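User: I'm writing a short methods note and want a consistent example. For AbfB domain-containing protein, I'll paste the sequence; you return only the structure tokens, no commentary, since I'll be parsing the reply automatically.
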Amino acid sequence: MSPRLSRRTVLLGAAASALSAPLLTAAPAAAQQAHTAYLMAHFTGQHSGGEQIYLSYSDDGLHWTDLNNGQIVLRSTVGTRGVRDPALIRSPQGDRYWIIATDLHIGSGTSWPDSMERGSTALTVWESTDLVNWSAPRLLDVAGPIAGAGNAWAPEAIYNRDTGDYVVYWATNSTVDGERQHRIWYSRTTDFRTLTAPQVYIDRPGTTGLIDTQIIEVTGSVGGWRYYRASGDGQLTIEASDSILGTWTRLGDLSHLGLTGRDVEGPMWAKFNDRDEWVLWLDQYRTGRGYMPVSSTNLGSTQNFRVRSDYQLGTTHKRHGSVLNLTAAEADRVRARWGSVPPNRLQSYNFPDRYVRHRNFDVLLDANVSPAADAQFRIVPGLADPAAVSFEAASHPGHYLRHTNFDFALARGDGSAAFAADATFTRVPGLADAAAASFRSVNHPDHYLRHYAYALRLDPITTATGRADATFRVTS
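Assistant:
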């Protein structure tokens, strides 16, 4: 994700392409299980809603399917309220995940010069224990301590097995030794909450600025090195090292493939699960054609890369993000949660012109719903019991119908057991019509979802009127 750097200096005028953000590969120790699939986190552009978190899935690492029907999966409500360049991070134990992203919302009207000189110095962070239930977003001010910092862009993090913590690195526009340009800075963290003081990580000589960089760890040091780094610095430069914070050796670039920083940006690494072969995804920002892959079975020489044509990216326009190799269990969870589930409506049995809808996060029964999406819900496996169901709002991914004190609201999932139970229901034959449906609470099994005075409630049902109020038709 970057306004394009000039070949000799940072472009300080109008924007070029989207900021590029790096990929984080899973640490080798993460879940000593075979990886069977791939998850890509990305944004889709500067249009309305494009600067949020989207997810895509692949079985082979080359052909991608949009999850959540191509809709937003996570929405930022902090900072600029927009995010770009998400990096997916897994703990070495495989029991915790983070998404870190650039806090930037060009689509809101912010200019590129303003965002470079007076932009957010924080990253937006989400946290999860299962890869599908995410915390509310929060800000992590990584560049605030840097004198004259103009921004914090294109973050990545990688677990450093030598030190037992994570190296978080990003681009900041700042003045060092009298030269103002984008450089890569880094800090160390164990929890993505507290950080060491930022230090310069990559500083190209002269006036060459750098925004995009991304590292992959290669188990077994195939090609002769433990780590490989791809950076957009006028070329697509490939470097190697045996230590994340040690000395890096330049191996070359991709100009022999006709690929330079004038043509592509946003390098994004991934390893194929079933073989020693690596793919480097490159965003063709100049032509707007999106990502293209080049691959290699030996990263020790840039001459080993070849351009591939056997790929398909799905329907959304994928901008700079990251790829995480998934275990079978992770893949099952992700597909169960965000697989392509068409939205449905809940039509009242006894007031058939009315549908369940949300309005200002309240939930009620209404006719002539506008916008129509406010009455659309994806009926997904129950958050507390996959044999039951939960109702996720089509227009607010990650938000569910949830009862509190027997009243209903649309609320963001917080990953807690209490929320999951409050938002999970057992679907049973309709109490007033077995051809329809009723929904029994899993944590109050003698209570059902019903409407009363057109408001949605959770009540015990004892009368014919109650049975009719608690009966719905699931329609398209």
